[in-house]
Specification:
single chain, about 300 residues, mainly alpha, about 75% helix, about 0% strand
């Protein structure tokens, strides 16, 4: 059997595991889009993010102790964790603001300018190889996103611009997470995410703080659960496959979020969204099929 260096560890079994973890990520992120919009409709995004981190920290404790307790959470790369979480905090804040300004499908569609930044950064900083099939998947996905967003229609405004900033931030965060998975466990990465983002956000959260209505606690809890364990799923997926394989799987979030927007908020799924989603799906299937064929022949 002959395999390239970039795919030697991406066996069919590893790809299947990565796909399962990404399914968890997709479910959590689609759910969080709805929960985040509901929570931020009455509370500051700063407050929601701190509550997410604090509740998430409590929820993470069983995994922390099963991994060896707080002593096992020590890291040799504190600054890498700090930079990763500072960038991710800003991107997450922008994302929460964007979901209140434009349709959910548009937020996620614009967010998927992210893979082109992620792919380029992974090649430059992580030494991953950009095969023609990976490149084709990214190109098809981005074409699909452009069809959905239609930047030439003159409809791009504040919400779209904020979504783009979030996408750039998320792409940098993903690269830093991928690098951290080489030295730190997934639980350790999530542990420091919750600690550092709580520290970053506590002052602005206190400034904008107000009592949480009883009917909103459920949405805040959902944001905390999805916001914590979605990253666990993404980090686990990164341990089984390269970023340039994992990230294109995330394209499926576009049609799934569009469906959620239609079901919950009656947001219209037009022909452009349907066509773009189809191209995104084709790109994902092409990428996975060709990668699997390369490692089994």
């Amino acid at each position: 059997m002959t395999v390239s260096n970039s795919s030697s560890r991406n066996s069919g079994d590893d790809l299947f595991k990565a796909a399962l973890w990404m399914a968890g990520w997709l479910a959590a992120m689609v759910t969080m889009a709805v929960a985040g919009r509901e929570a931020v409709s009455q509370l500051s995004a700063f407050q929601v993010m701190v509550l997410r981190s604090v509740i998430g920290f409590v929820l993470l404790q069983p995994l922390v102790f099963s991994a060896g307790g707080y002593g096992a959470m020590k890291t040799k790369h504190p600054w890498q964790h700090i930079w990763r979480n500072a960038v991710h905090y800003g991107a997450q804040y922008a994302w929460l603001i964007a979901v209140t300004l434009i349709p959910l499908a548009q937020v996620v569609s614009i967010e998927f300018t992210m893979p082109i930044w992620t792919a380029l950064l992974a090649v430059i900083f992580l030494g991953e190889k950009m095969s023609r099939w990976k490149l084709a998947a990214v190109i098809l996905g981005l074409i699909g996103v452009l069809i959905i967003v239609r930047p030439g229609s003159g409809n791009i405004g504040t919400g779209q611009a904020i979504s783009l900033l979030a996408a750039i931030g998320f792409s940098i965060s993903i690269i830093l997470v991928k690098s951290l998975t080489r030295t730190d466990s997934v639980v350790r990465i999530i542990f420091w995410m919750l600690v550092i983002q709580t520290i970053i956000g506590i002052i602005p959260a206190i400034y904008f703080w107000k009592p949480v209505p009883n009917d909103l606690w459920g949405w805040v809890f959902v944001v905390a659960v999805c916001g914590t364990f979605s990253h666990f799923c993404m980090a686990k997926a990164m341990t089984y496959a390269d970023a340039t394989i994992v990230v294109p799987m995330d394209f499926l979030r576009v049609p799934l979020t569009a469906l959620a927007g239609w079901a919950v908020y009656s947001e219209v799924i037009d022909i452009y969204t349907a066509t773009g989603a189809a191209l995104i799906l084709v790109g994902n299937l092409l990428n996975l099929k060709k990668t699997k064929a390369r490692v089994t022949t």
